[in-house]
Amino acid sequence: MQRDNYILVIDDDPDILDAIRLLLEDEGYAVKTSDKGEYAESLHDENGGLPDLIILDILLSGKDGRTICRKLKARADTRHIPIILLSAHPDAARSAAEVGADAYLAKPFHIDDLLAEVARQLAVPPAASSPEEGTV
Amino acid sequence: MSAPGTTLPLPPAEEPIGPAHDAELLAAGSGAELIALLQDGVYELDREFRYVRVNAAGAKLAQKAAQEMVGKRVQDLFPDAQSLPLHEAAQRVMHTRRAERIETFFPRFYRWYANTVYPTAGGVAIFARDITEQKALEQNLVFLAKASKVLASSLDYGKTLRNVAKLAVPHFADWCTVDLLTGPTRVELLAMAHVDPKKVKWGRALRRANPVNLNDLDGLPRVLRTGKPEFYPLITDDLLVAMAKNERDLDLARSVGFSSVMIVPLVVERRTIGAITFVAAESGRHYTKADLAMAEELASRVALAIANARLFQASQRAVALRDDFISIASHELKTPVTSLKVYAELLLRQAAQAGDARTGDQLRKMNRQIGKLGQLIEDLLDVSKIEAGKLELRHEALNLNALVAAIVDDIQATAENHAIAIEGAIQGRVVGDSDRLGQVVANLLTNAIKYSPQAKRVVVRLADTPAGASIQVEDFGIGIGAEHLDKIFDRFYRVSSAEGKTFPGLGIGLSICRDIVERHGGRLTVESVRGQGSIFTMTLPYHSPG
User: Is the residue at A74 inside a domain?
Assistant: First the structure.
């Protein structure tokens, strides 16, 4: 499967998006950002390809990041992408695991903690899944 | 006939018994003269059920002249009498020669009687006492009790009021309606009851065609405007004519067959929120002042039930709103702190890479403040959750030794002047929430360091005790004066030093710690001597399986 080498960050707060992008680009990663949950849902393999990792905030305007996570994990073509859920909400940790998130980080976080988690998730080889086998 | 000299109980008065009547009775002596003056109706019958003697009260009750009745048989004067329980009782007494008591109700006059049928030498004698007022009171009280029970059965006052209206018919009223003011000019018909469902349909259609106009002079509109009841004990055709706005209204009113009406307001905190209307029509009942008093009592209970239900709904909404607030505040407050922290740490890294120690130092201090801000927000939100009863605790097997060691490691990393030592270990099994208990230990350690700036060490002791697993944090710092000791776990309590300086913080950390420990079934206590230091001891109960 093609690795397109970028991290997708989705958060409805533009300042946090900027800060995380700065942090990741500083670390040498390619980053795409969006403040809309729909962007994650409409991901597909053409047009620049799928991300290697998604960092997703739970509380998005009009959408729940957990639902998006569940959907992405249910689709054969996106199931393999590791997802780190972020949240300022006190009780989010518990529900993060329930929707198949690979990791959860509470806001506000230490940048080292986020970087460590990103490195950890990207080090895991992608789960076997190719667009040829099976269909969505 | 009763024997001379027997005292007959005085009847409840339809007309008041006055001194003149007493005097007559006293003068009458006994026997026939006495019976003639009684307010009880007395009927003497022979063996063929022919009236032998009827007293004045009895004749009045029968609505005939005594002379009309004497010599005639009961069944000739009153053809329906045969089927009446009273007549059947009289027949029984005639045969068995044993007295009987029986209550009768005359719908035409809407009156109740307690009748005693005595065997006499010539046949039977019936003494009929008017017990209408007592009976009405009794029935009213029964109705009130049933209605109260219905009102208390549910907070859905729409449902309970419809049931109360149904309860009222047909015994207390022929029609019962409940109206509520749903706006300054809007009246909503909440319930309408009548024994005959066809009539209810008709009544509702009537209402739809003639909606209540709050500007009308009398009736329901006036009650809703003034909060005062309206009472029409006797409705005559003249009254209907006087009150009707037009010919059509008059026809409608006449078709209902009004005989008596009571409209009582529903008042909550001096505001009229609606009214209950009781209409007597086909029954021919005429409401009395006692009935009005009962209707007002019912109305006040109904108003109370409505007020309670509304208060409850409002409090539910407030709780939901507050819980939403906690969610939203949590997110909103932490959002800017998140960005702040990322930028501060990025700058710190750049300063370190550039070898700029001074800038790095300042940034480190700034980052620490950001950390404190984040912690304060957490504490505040924890308190909200605890207050709201929404603090969820996990139940897992705990390795307290490992937990304490990890926390000590974390805190030791930033404690430059203190050496934190761990003594002892816990063998017993404890169940609980490791995150929250870790929060408590961390809090106690941070306090220990904060309040012993001159000391060099902090000691953590782990032990098993009869009361449970014990975690103790001892510092050798400024200590806590005796006057503060029982208050330091209170919400927002802050200790000030001898110079009047208060240590920074919201003062909620210890109260949260105590809440968490107590939620685990444990205790958090403190011993301290000012100037020497403090020992905080946390005890957690052991877990017994099964």
Answer: yes
d(Cα B271, Cα B91) in Å, to the nearest integer? 59
Domain harbouring A65, CATH code: 3.40.50.2300
Residue corresponding to tokens 């408590």: B440
- The partner residue sitting opposite A111, judged by closest CB among B330, B346, B374, is B346
Nearest residue to B282 (alpha-carbon basis) of B258, B254, B261, B253: B258
Compute the count of residue pairs across chains A and B with CB atoms less than 8 Å apart: 58
pLDDT-above-90 percentage for chain A: 44
- E strand or H helix that includes residue A91: none
Chain A interface, mutation test: which of B334, B342, B350, most A Cβ atoms within 10 Å?
B342
**Among B324, B338, B353, which would you mutate to test the A interface (most chain A Cβ atoms within 10 Å of its Cβ)?**
B338
Write the DSSP assignment of B318-352 as a string of letters: HHHHHHHHHHHHHHHHHHHHHHHHHHHHHHHHHHH
* Residues of B (305-344) whose Cβ lies below 8 Å from A: 327, 330-331, 333-343
Nearest to B530 by CA among B456, B451, B463: B451
Say how many CA atoms lie within 13 Å of B254 toward its Cβ.
Answer: 11
Over residues B252-267, mean pLDDT: 90
Which of B305, B294, B286, B308 is closest to B264 using CA atoms?
Answer: B294
Nearest partner of A89 among B329, B158, B254, judged by Cα:
B329
Residue A133's φ and ψ, nearest 5 degrees, are -75, 125
- What pLDDT is attached to residue B244? 80
User: A59-60 and A63-64 as β-strands: parallel, antiparallel, unpaired?
Assistant: antiparallel
Its domain, for residue A11, covers: 7-121
B376 touching chain A per CB within 8 A? no
What average pLDDT does the segment B430-446 reach? 91
B346 and A90 within 8 Å at the Cβ level: the answer is: no
**Binding-face residues of B in 450-489 toward A, CB within 8 A:** none
Q: How far apart are CA B231 and CA A135, in angstroms?
A: 79
Bond preceding residue A108 cis, omega within 30 of 0: yes
Burial class of residue B459 in the structure, from the number of CB atoms within 10 Å of its CB (0-12 exposed, 13-18 middle, 19+ buried): middle
> CB distance A89–B330 less than 8 Å?
yes
Residue A107 belongs to a domain: yes
Q: Report if residue A12 sits inside a domain.
A: yes
pTM above 0.90, yes or no: no
> Are B3 and B19 a contacting pair, CB within 8 Å?
no
Predicted confidence at residue B376, as pLDDT, reads 83
Band (pLDDT 50/70/90 cuts) for residue B405 is very high
Model pLDDT, residue B497: 58
Q: How many domains would you assign to chain A?
A: 1
Better pLDDT: A87 or A1: A87
Residue A132 lies in a domain: no
Whether B189 contacts B276, CB under 8 Å = no
**Chain A residues lying within 8 Å of B336, measured CB to CB:** 15
Of the given ranges (B32-36, B464-468, B474-478), which has the lowest mean pLDDT? Answer: B32-36
Query: For residue B12, what pLDDT is reported?
Result: 42
Contact B364/A at CB under 8 A = no
Strands of the B100-106 sheet, one edge to the other: B51-54, B41-46, B123-130, B111-119, B100-106
Asked if the C-beta of B504 comes within 8 angstroms of chain A's C-beta atoms, the answer is no
Mean pLDDT of A111-127: 86
Burial class of residue B217 in the structure, from the number of CB atoms within 10 Å of its CB (0-12 exposed, 13-18 middle, 19+ buried) = exposed
Question: Considering only CB atoms, which chain A residues are within 8 Å of B393?
Answer: none
The Cα B527–Cα A122 span in angstroms is 51
